[in-house]
Design brief:
Blueprint lengths: L1 E6 L8 H11 L3 E6 L6 H9 L4 H20 L6 E4 L6 H8 L5 E6 L2 H7 L5 H17 L2 E4 L2 H6 L2 H4 L2 E3 L6 H5 L13 E6 L8 H10 L5 E6 L5 H7 L7 E3 L7 H6 L3 E2 L11 H9 L8
Parallel strand pairs: 1-2, 1-3, 3-4, 4-5, 5-6, 7-8, 7-10, 8-9
Amino acid sequence: MRVLLFGTYDTSTHPRVATIAEGLRARGFEVAECNAPLGLDTAARVDMLARPWRAPALLLRLARRWATLARAARRMPAPDVVLVGYLGHFDVHLARLVFRRVPVVLDHLVGASDTARDRRLDGGPRQALLAMIDAAALRAADVVVVDTEEHLDALPGRHQSRAVVVPVGAPSAWYAVARPAAGGDAPGPLRVVFYGLYTPLQGAPVIGAALARIAGVPIEVTMVGSGQDAAETRTAAAANHAVRWLDWVPAAELPALVASHHVCLGIFGTGTRRCGSCRTRFSRVPPPGARS
């Protein structure tokens, strides 16, 4: 079976689709890609919700990428299934137009309205608009993919029968760099790492407060990433001068960085949502034999 990954996704910032592709290939599917990255991460898209006058720039950029995708799709062999990558709330409509007789699968993961709530853009016309975008995307897909049973239950009832749960997991590169289970670690202090986008869901300020409380304790901590709660996290951890802060690590280098630590921190947010993508990734990434 030929599966075509389609859309404006960017695997360097959202590796979810690359992990799915790896899994499909490992199970014998023929996987091709028709991809034109939009060049905007989740934070930039949410920023446009906060400042709607910037929306025309998004639409213009999207139109250009769509033209590229449509031209490329015409030159490719016909697929048996089209899989629209994460953040494909608009791309799924183009896929439906270009591949009229082919089943279209939307990797919905979480809704745009859920993302906005996580970024504290609740209520008002923006939330209503995003709910409409979510609903239209779900209607356009033949199959909807989410990352947890909780997100499956959160889908409107009429779409749940067409939905499947695919946990995010981690690509093989994460396991390839794992440290030996025993005997391969040099003596020294406990090494702890956190990486993320510093969204409210991740609860990074809780980590910052904890770092302040262990100031002076021989624990090496590396904090990777930037985002909405990064400044608050740094302020909370200000008393601990031993923390290493990295705004960015290339995706190809991140597995080795994480594997060089004993503990990888996960999710500390207190909201009602559960982040399967973060929870799964953080629970599976630490190398074998990691201390807890």
